[in-house]
């Protein structure tokens, strides 16, 4: 699966692989350059999405938990953020619904799951 996303002025592709590692590549003017590899055995779906100022990447797998990564601007790469328990996801879809942000995760083996995006301020 190939997915496109932008962070500011930079353009990226997500390249998922069922066997082997998935990749994130950045457009460098004349070609795409590998930026990051992500372990992804059994991955059928890799979906970048943004919520407000945050850029995320959901990487689903038939054999393990779905991993959600968060883009770190300073490092110019995704870092592991959270795991979701989705059995054999086949897609992820971000849906802004009124005052909530939802991530839908249809599954090949189970029911479609809906996750709500929540930001918790731990700075106190």
From TrEMBL:
Q: Which GO BP terms sit in this record? A: regulation of exocytosis
InterPro entries, sorted: EAR, EPTP, LGI_related
Alphabetically sorted, this entry's keywords are: Glycoprotein, Repeat, Signal
> Where exactly are the transmembrane stretches of this chain?
none
PROSITE patterns for the chain = EAR
Q: Name one Pfam family in it.
A: EPTP
State the source organism's domain of life.
Answer: Eukaryota
GO CC aspect terms: synaptic vesicle
For this entry, the protein name equals: Leucine-rich repeat LGI family member 3
């Amino acid at each position: 699966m190939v997915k496109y996303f932008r962070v500011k002025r930079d353009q990226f592709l997500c390249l998922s692989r069922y066997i082997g590692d998935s990749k994130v590549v950045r457009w460098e003017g004349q070609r795409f350059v590998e930026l990051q590899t992500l372990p992804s055995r059994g991955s059928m779906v890799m979906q970048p999405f943004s919520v407000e100022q945050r850029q995320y990447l959901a990487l689903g797998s038939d054999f393990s938990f779905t991993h959600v990564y968060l883009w770190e601007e300073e490092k110019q790469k995704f870092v592991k953020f959270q795991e979701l328990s989705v059995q054999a996801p086949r897609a992820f879809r971000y849906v802004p619904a009124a005052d909530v942000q939802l991530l839908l995760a249809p599954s090949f083996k189970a029911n479609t799951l809906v996750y709500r995006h929540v930001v918790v301020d731990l700075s106190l």
